[in-house]
Amino acid sequence: MFFPISGAHISPIYLVIVGFLIGILGGFFGVGGSFIAGPALRLVGLDWNFAVGTDLAHIVGKSVVAAKRHRALGNVDLRLGSIMAIGTIAGAETGAQLIQMLKRAGNVNQVVSIVAIVVYLSISAFMLWESRKTLRSQKRQLSKAKVKGLTAKKDESAFGHVTRAIQRLKIWPMISLPTSGVKAISLWMILLVAFVGGVFGGFLGGGAGYIRMPSMVYVLGIPTHLAVGTDLFEIVISASYGTFSHAVKGNVDILIALVMHTGAAIGAQIGAISTQYFAGPKIRLAFVPLPLIGAGIVIYTLVSGHKL
Amino acid sequence: MKSETTKTLGAFALELVIYGILVTGYFFLVLHLLGGWLYELEVHHRYTYAGVAILLIIGQAVVLESVTTFLLRLIGGRSE
Asked: Contact at 8 Å (CB) between A225 and A27?
């Protein structure tokens, strides 16, 4: 199939399958899947600028479906998502400026690749450690509870003491997030988490759900299911902004995004429904290989010199 | 338990077939017709194209979500 905007010839079946797989990941983990979509579009010959912009447009569509589904399941904190969108957009602009600075210095590819590898590996290692520790502690609690006739908490974290310390920081203004079960948290902490996620998004590309979703759980203390749904809602806003910005610069082939999205629409539904069958720590444990795939792709491009 | 899983997988496969037929029709009818117009828009009116692009992807998302939900209900799969 010929796509006149980017001038590319790509099989629509390939695009639908890629969209479907990324849709499942997005619905289940609340990530945009850019670390797979970008290379997948590059693989069939789409220019890097079109791959980034088109992927963002596709993320908007996919996240609308998944966020709507999560909203129906009660997994979206609209208040938190709206606040985070502001921080993410500001962060994304900062990340894009950092890229421009590195471009001028002439070492953008090397620096971005090394930062990406370090970030992806760190997230994977931390989440593997935390989710396994939490699952082990839940097992112990469950066996004790059986004796006492109690039940273990469904979505707790081994990093909970740090989360509670962050929630105790009284930096005005303090706000409450009743949907997420957070009584009081500094607005600045929410904006900071969103800003950092936005910087990584602008710096490394995509929606940066791989860093924002874990940050929401571990730093803000949002339950995993709500972090997934709220992250998707927030991505709709920030990715729409990114799509508009890229489209104006001539980096979006919306026809490719529309075709990819037909697969993602059904994948996202399956992913979102599947979250109901898994407890928080298990979702976090299943998340571990995703940043590793991203790291693997970046290492491959660095070692082989092949630009995916 | 096993028969329930088989039933769910069967319903899902049926949904994929119906969805595939709908999407194929969509490619040829809608995207083919829109292609030329969007290309012209992208070349001559970038800001309008950017706005239309977002509206199109969100519109398609909402419509397809309704279609997939309807199909899941029609076939009897568990969508909620």
From this structure: no
